[in-house]
Amino acid sequence: MRRAFATRRRLGLIAAVAAATLAASACSEPPTTGSGNAVQIGPGAELPDCPLDALDEAQGPVEVNLWYGGLVGSTKATMEDIVARFNASQDQVRVTANDQGAAYDEVLRKYESAASSSPDQLPDLIYLEDTQLQVMVDSGQVLPAQSCMEAAGYDLTDLEPVARSKYTVGDVLYPGYMNVSTPVLYYNKAHWVKAGLDPNDPPQTLDEIYTQAKALRDAGVSEKPLSFKADRWFFETWLTGIGEDIVNNGNGREAPATEATFATPAADDLVGWLKKMNDEGLLNPFADTEGSIDQYLALATQQSSMLIETSTASATIADALGGNLTAAEAGVDFDASVLDKTQLVPASAAMPGIEAAGKVFPTGGAFYILNTSEPAQQAASWKFLEYMLTPEIAKVWHLDGGYLPIVKAVEDDPQVQAFWRDDLAGTLLHTAVEQLSDADPDLPGPLIGPYTDEALAIENALDAVLFDNQDVDESLARAQDEVTQSLERYAGD
């Protein structure tokens, strides 16, 4: 998912990024949100033991098989680099990272197939999309990383509160490391100047998107100012930002979700806004097709002026749209004289919301220790995750992988601060860093077992409205019924 501009090289970069994106501790304060599912470890229950001693007792290097997927380009290179660094840093553990496919779903399918037919073929450590949290907890095959954190004396308060909250279920943090991203607004400052708008004052709300999109279109700057992929992620983010739940029982975090609840007046207004934008020619809509980069190409070809997309696209956007621009030329001190050498001046801003900008929750992927492995492999898996939690390696995930820092100390690192200040990609990414720091731990997003069904139902509703001109209320009500039925089937399994 990204853009392409003039050269084949840039198109290759964009395609690579496109594929990429498809707990109370005894020694620390927990995130402010609470949760509890019948299948999971509940409040007050004792955590399972993390067998750290098994690693010390093992003979020779302990082999750890890591399955991952959904990482390509720079993110895949970062994964491989971190594994190589870890293996070279010590002689107790050797991690082998096995790429299971360019999409997160490929890893999940292989995991589910092995879990049901040949559990002895399961990996020791697995990286999955954030949407699979409920499935992994309900599987009973995860050793909660918090068990190992407490056993090793790791302070959970070293992590960003909203990242902990997102992945905490039943007051227990399950994954040991999380690659986090958020949606942001990318926009072309050159178009704002041409339309007589302030290039340093992008829209903060949906109403402001509408107003500025009209100004851009009426000035003849772009044909369809907002490029938009009809992704359930944005729908969920917008509603969560105003405290609306996607499913019942506290968005699935107080008890297992049993029905969908998103077909509300606020959702009707939201999708109605998208329809109005589309009907008036202000929206450039694209279906959420795996591997498609059309939403990025619309910005690159200047058919559109702005795009809501993942923060992990920052490096590719800087390369594809920024040309030879420096961070200073495209940043807050933007000087319109740079338009003499480019028609594309990429910038980023907090995701515009229904009421205010920046109301987001973390998404991305997470690493889980499987308890189906031998104790030595479980302890060795933790040792690798503990390595990733060091500020130096968490910094690598940020600088090279494009993910947001979940270890607080990373933000104070001089190299990171220089990246935000002096590198165009870093300037674009810093918006998302600030957005994550300001995010509300009490609004960590929905916890859903059959997430694939939920996503499909919501995206079908968006497609029905935007591409088939179907009724907003009926489309959302139909999607809500489908998700409720899916939740009922999941609970009965």
How would you describe this structure to a colleague?
- It is a single chain.
- The protein has 493 residues and is α/β, with parallel strands linked by helices.
- The chain has 2 domains: 235 residues, 3-Layer(aba) Sandwich (D-Maltodextrin-Binding Protein, domain 2), CATH 3.40.190.10; 205 residues, 3-Layer(aba) Sandwich (D-Maltodextrin-Binding Protein, domain 2), CATH 3.40.190.
- It is 46% helix and 13% strand.
- It contains 21 helices and 13 strands.
- Strands 1, 2, 3, 4, 7 and 13 form a 6-stranded mixed β-sheet that branches.
- Helix 14 packs antiparallel against helix 19, helix 18 crosses helix 19 and helix 20 packs antiparallel against helix 21.
- The N terminus is likely disordered.
* Largest β-sheet summary: 6 strands, mixed
What's the Cα radius of gyration? 22 Å
Number of domains: 2
**CATH superfamily (homologous) name of the largest domain:** Periplasmic binding protein-like II
Secondary structure tally, helices:
21
Structural class: alpha/beta
The number of E-state strands comes to 13
Helical fraction equals: 40-55%
Q: Can you tell me the CATH topology of the largest domain?
A: D-Maltodextrin-Binding Protein, domain 2
Itemize the secondary structure elements and their pairings.
Blueprint: H1 8-21, H2 53-57, E1 62-68, H3 73-89, E2 93-99, H4 104-117, E3 125-129, H5 133-139, E4 142-143, H6 145-152, H7 161-166, E5 168-169, E6 172-173, E7 177-181, E8 183-188, H8 189-194, H9 206-218, E9 226-230, H10 232-240, H11 248-252, H12 265-279, E10 283-287, H13 294-300, E11 306-310, H14 314-322, H15 327-330, E12 346-350, E13 363-370, H16 375-388, H17 391-399, H18 414-422, H19 424-438, H20 451-468, H21 472-492
Parallel strand pairs: 1-2, 1-3, 9-10, 9-11
Antiparallel strand pairs: 3-13, 4-13, 5-6, 7-13, 8-11, 8-12
Helix pairs in contact: 1-14, 14-19, 18-19, 20-21
